[in-house]
Design a protein that fits this description.
Strand content: over 45%
Structural class: alpha+beta
CATH architecture: Roll
Number of strands: 5
Distance between the termini: 11 Å
Number of helices: 1
Helix content: 10-25%
Low-confidence stretches: none
Order of helices and strands: HEEEEE
CATH class: Mainly Beta
Mean pLDDT: 95
CATH topology: SH3 type barrels
Largest sheet: 5 strands, antiparallel
Shape: globular
């Protein structure tokens, strides 16, 4: 994924399927300066990680 698309998904009112390493996630925020996103895992709603945007996959 790229920064532009990650930002579009983050700002979208619709639920868009995104995964990180095959695990469904929500995008919590996007940092365009360092190409990262904070993500929250569906199955572990209390776990938030900061990952490289290129590792996010839209389905």
């Amino acid at each position: 994924m790229n920064n532009k698309r990650a930002k579009e998904i983050f700002n979208s009112p619709n639920m868009i399927n995104v995964t990180f390493n095959g695990i469904p996630v929500y995008i919590e925020s996007v940092n365009e300066d360092n190409n990262t996103a904070k993500i929250r895992f569906f199955n572990q709603s209390n776990k938030i990680d900061e990952v490289s945007i290129i590792n996010l996959v839209e389905h």
